[in-house]
Amino acid sequence: MAREFDRIARLARRFRGPAAPAIGIGDDAAVLPVTAGPLAVTVDASVEGVHFRRAWAPLDRLARRAVEAALSDLAAMGADPSAAGGGVLFALELPSTLDEAAFDSLIEGLALGAEAHQAPVLGGNLARAACDAISITTTAMGVCERPLTRRGARAGDALFVTGVLGAARVGVEALLAGRGDEPRLRPFVDRWLSPSARIREGLALRNVATASIDLSDGLAQDAAHIAAGSGVALVFERDALPLAESQRDACRELGLDPTDVALSGGEEYELLFAAPSSAALSFATRIGFVRAGSGVFARDARGERPVHGGWDHFAPERES
């Protein structure tokens, strides 16, 4: 018992920040101020053996990655986790074998992830895992004056994406092949390991985008959610998909098709959004358009074909 309460006390000390709720860590529940607008709430889990392997990186980096993944959902909704009423909560399931240095490293990563977006840590739960695997569940909340959804894309809109596509998938493939430390592949491992939730971009899109989603399961699969929600078809230009520097070379080394990786890679935590075709946005690349119909397509000089693929938690896949 002493060990559990000592850890809770250390959590409270590390997570105490200037943007504190009315009542935060130390009671049975947090008490938040009344928000100035609608509150977006999301829950995201990062499970060892499914989303990461402990051998791939220090625990602080893996923990921070889990926070960024959760906050990415708020970015897609145009929500601000730093506004009054916003913040994060963590439910941690930890093996009994996890030592104190590893525990401190993990909570440091959680704290740094929240601090990067000025999101107060409101509380959470600490429990022993039933197996020798770490599980980090993050609840994130943010105020959204005008919530972005997947349901507003219109025929004639343009499609945009922040950042690059497929680099995180290249990084995972390098890790799975035991080649993550090779200098030519290490930048792609870092892309997977160090995403950054696009909170600022999401806030900037509140009066611009007609539909938005974050890219956690792959461009094609996540785009299908916008297509279905909006009742339209999405068409990507293959040659317009933004790739990281040297990504084509890295794909050749790992036996991957660069375009397929860009379309189905996953875990990028970039924003895909639709906006009027007249929109000019310095932080995003135009990669296609919305038309009447249904489904998701990619086109090039040979024509237009439907595209599928992406991450499915319940499909028979390799562990990551």
Pick out the low-confidence regions: 313-320
Kindly report the CATH topology of the largest domain.
Answer: Phosphoribosyl-aminoimidazole Synthetase, Chain A, domain 2
**Category from helices, strands and their pairing:** alpha+beta
Instruction: Specify the helix fraction band.
Output: 25-40%
CATH architecture group name of the largest domain = Alpha-Beta Complex
Order of helices and strands: HEHEHEEEHHHEHEHHEEEE
**Number of discrete helical segments:** 9
What's the level 1 CATH class of the largest domain? Answer: Alpha Beta
CATH superfamily (homologous) name of the largest domain:
PurM-like C-terminal domain
Please tell me the total number of domains: 2
Outline: globular
User: In what range is the share of β-strand residues?
Assistant: 15-25%
* Spatial arrangement of strands, main beta sheet: 6-8-5-9-7-10-11
Q: How big is the Rg? A: 20 Å
Give the averaged pLDDT, no decimals: 92
Q: Based on DSSP secondary structure assignment, what is the total number of beta strands?
A: 11
In angstroms, what separates the terminal alpha carbons?
34 Å
Largest sheet: 7 strands, mixed
